[in-house]
Amino acid sequence: MIEDHNNFGLLQKKIKYNFRSIELLKNVFIHRSYLNEHKNLHLNSNEKLEFLGDSVLSLITSLYLFKKYPHLQEGDYTDIKASIVRTESLAEAAESIQLGNHLFLSRGQDQENGRKNINILADCFEALIASVFLDGGFEQADAFVNEFLFSDKLDYLVKNKLYLSPKSRLQEYTQSRYKVIPVYKTVDEKGPEHEKTFKIQVFVKNKKGAIGVGKSKKEAEELAAKKTLEKIENII
User: Fold this and answer.
1) 176 near 184, Cβ under 8 Å?
2) Per-residue confidence band for 236, with pLDDT thresholds at 50, 70 and 90
3) Does residue 54 carry a catalytic annotation?
């Protein structure tokens, strides 16, 4: 039996769900590195739970968007879902309920600040979704995701169209505000054909916006658009 870090009771209060199977909850926090030093442990790593949690989260997100935003297109759903379930968002949600404190890691992984590793935290959060789903059913998992991942974040993301790429957001902004679309001009390109670097500047109403540098024109344009969005009011 592995130790429970004396905090599972507090964690269950925090997430507002009491597990019938504490073993299932413990399994959420077992990183594969921990098993390398505890080969006789009767529990597996959390990787299978993470796999299941990814699918459950996808369904919960799809249902939420389908019901709450029926006017959006399928492409919008795809972009919104990708934004809300990205690693950084999941890790942020995991940190908000301090999942890192409960992780079972190898000594090396622990010393390398594994409890703050965004990939480990994101996987742990998805494993927790799966464990709530297995222990309490879909409604409990749905309630958990809505409170601790979506909260006001998803609606804010949709309302402000933050799921769109910087280029798309800049174009929407300039079209609605100024009735023009941004123009992108290549300022410079360097390097051999297979390894070019592009420097691109965006113009809005013939006024200079930011410059973006990237390994492709698309990458440079997106960066230029992102920088321009941050200071658009000072440009026009």
Assistant:
1) no
2) low
3) yes
